[in-house]
Amino acid sequence: MSDLPLPANPVPAPLRRSLRRKLLGWYDAHRRRLPWRDTGDPYRVLVSEFMLQQTRVAAVLPHFRRFLDRFPDLRSLAAAGDEAVCAAWSGLGYYRRARALGAAARVLVRDHGAGIPDDLDTLRSLPGVGDYTAAALASIVHDRPAAVVDGNVLRVLARLFAVEGSISRPAGARAVGGYARALLDPGRPGDWNQAVMELGATVCTPRAPRCEACPWEAACAARERNAVAAYPRRDPPKAPVSVQRALGVFRRGPRVLLVHREDPRLLDGTWEIPGLDLDPAARPLPALTAELARRFAREVALGGELVRIRHAITRRRFTVRAFAARAVPSLRADPGRRAWLDLESLDDYPVSSMTSKVLAALARLGEADRRPRPRS
After folding, report:
1. What is the largest CA-CA distance in the chain?
2. Spatial separation of the C-alpha atoms in residues 350 and 92, rounded to whole Å
3. Which CATH superfamily is domain 13-230 in?
4. Domain boundaries in the chain?
5. CA separation for the pair 292, 294 (Å, rounded)
6. What's the rounded mean pLDDT across residues 50-58?
7. Per-residue pLDDT for 110 more than 70?
8. Domain 241-370 is of which CATH architecture?
9. Choice among 49, 198, 272, 291 that is catalytic
10. Is 49 a catalytic residue?
């Protein structure tokens, strides 16, 4: 139905009116009840939009409620330090979003009276706010006619109009953006944007879409071609990369040593068990011994492997092995850089999902060690 480039007005007016009416009717009847919807609270919308960047609704929900319990309004968030914000964010990943949200809150309190501006350029100037988040905030909070384009919108509209360009490339994404702007309902822009995203999240899903439940089934070009699975067009995905990571577990009674990670490329600002990613040819124990000795300026001895977990971050596939470790002289806490923490009381420290998996495995190992053994 569409080859690039798009005409200036890509959707005829009768079709545009029909698509708007059908989708908004479907949305009014079927939208999910979410804690940031229909509340009239711009702060909830702000937090949800930061959390929903690169994260599904189901994964966000428990973290959203916990975050709002800790920071119930914009002023409480603006008054918090990055460490506290990241701790409340813990488990959601992409911690740059948490720090950007805290920074945006401070700007909003300082320069905008703790309100959300309605101007797109002003919104885009906030930390962590790009075109998508600016359009979402402007349309949902202020009913400004700004079209959002996220992964759900790209998929839904690429199927609806059978867009042939790869959405992995700027031309394909621009084509879908043109359709998004053309279809946007100026009377209900916030609801419209949420409706398209809701359709992608619940009906027009990446795999096994429920076309029979879609209000746009009769108009869908991909459905007419019996080629829904072929859209959206994408460049072939890059092959996953295998990464071996080795960790040293220093214990002091029930506590484990965690260190503050400072790496802007990945998981920056989180707390983790000290270790390293191994070169492909490296042997884990010598490499880990040398890294820990260098980091702590101590003689370090490693024992046996305690736990092993697998974890994926984007296209990295981690195999993480944690070894018992001991330092001479023994290590001490160093505020801001390392801390001895009980496995059951980590709420004040932001840890990644990968570190959480390792700590949970260590906790289970400790529970097994404490269980009474039958007498022989």
Report:
1. 83
2. 10
3. Hypothetical protein; domain 2 (1.10.340.30)
4. 13-230, 241-370
5. 5
6. 90
7. yes
8. Alpha-Beta Complex (3.90)
9. 49
10. yes
